[in-house]
Fold each of these.
Amino acid sequence: MKTGTSLGLLGLLIAVSCVALWSVQIHQVDIPEDRTMYVVFFLMAAGLGVGAFVAGTRWIGGIAAALAIVIGSLVPFTIAISRQEVAANAIQVGDSIPHFTAVDEHGKPFDSKSLHGHLVLIKFFRAHW
């Protein structure tokens, strides 16, 4: 096996592993505030992909290297451009829900006052993409 093919496959393995871990943490709403290690590993995957092309690779290593470059570059880019900060007046666990109105998934009006007296879990999620 050519060195470039090994680098490409390793880069893809790192990129896919990071995406899998990121997906698990998104699902658990447990993304760390300091995402430095994610960025380092994604960029490492992209670097291995570039290194694979420089070292020379067979077609399978080339596909793996290209995917490693795309995944390894895209995710850190999206993290960099979408800073997510918690507002100073953010709702905390145990706080009373503020009054708001919105349209529900059926297109009908919803008023938060209808939740008064009930325990409610509200999950807001904003992805990086």
Amino acid sequence: MHNYLITLFLILPIYLKAQQLADTTYNPPIYSPAYEAGKGPIIFIDEGHHNFHTKDGRYRAFSDLLERDGYRAMA
């Protein structure tokens, strides 16, 4: 029985496909933006070197939040 459980725990992850998804519904209120829309500092998001996260992908909620706070998010 012990060997069966070990085998199960070693093989089971092969059949489970987990993935990270961006939470596109994340939209907290900004009562007092730091800067006027599009007038704040530029924030660069590095998408080079095969990065896993991109401005329009998994970092979308973060870049949207920055832009709503007046920053200029660029890739």
